[in-house]
Amino acid sequence: MTVELNHRITGQGEPLILLHGLFGSLENLGGIARRLEDGWQIHALDQRNHGSSPHTDDMDYPAMAADVVAYMDAHNLDKAWVLGHSMGGKVAMQVALGYPERVKGIIVADIAPVTYKARHDAVLDGMKNLELVGVTTRQEADKRLAEFVEIPGVRQFLLKNLERKPAEQAGNGDQLFRWRLNLPVIDTCYQKLAAAPEGEGPYNGPVLFIKGADSAYIQSKHQDTIRQLFPAAELKIIEGTGHWLHAEKPDTFAALCRRFLGS
Q: pTM higher than 0.85, yes or no?
């Protein structure tokens, strides 16, 4: 069963759907949306169990791709470009493989169509074990999360998912904050999210993979799988960036997208 995804629409032109990564929300690609909205109508989506979209008891790539297509149906989008980062890139690939007639082309940011080993154990453990009772400020939550997640930038990214409870749900006031995302289901379904997109392919439309030069998510050993599923794929590498390439060098990233979308 599909869910109605929270979204933000800006700009004018051909529709371009933006899909964020794991633990993210539509705000994560906001800088890219602002750089492209002069030429495309941007549809930034919160994926299921993330941001302000509905929580569900399950999540895998076929279901998340179906959510995107249901969104397209609801907004009368016959075909669209799709851009996804990390987990969002896998959803973009799943949409292209499962619904090729609905896709003009896809941009995949720093992820390959393969199954990965667990990479987020520390993050999941930290979020699950973060004691929110007694936390009155985000700074205090950051201090507690630092016991599990060392990198400040990663903590700040994760804490964007922390929201204040509505006054009527605050109870006796011992817990003022809660996680906005559906942490239990993301934890339970993590292996499904680490898996490759499903589909025998190929998708013969235009595909652009953009890799952060310092990231290990796209490797030379993935080339055969990429070519098998996406014969027309091209690869661009942004030097001096890691997995968060769109945030580290947004102008370069947006320029590559603009060139691809405009061609």
A: yes
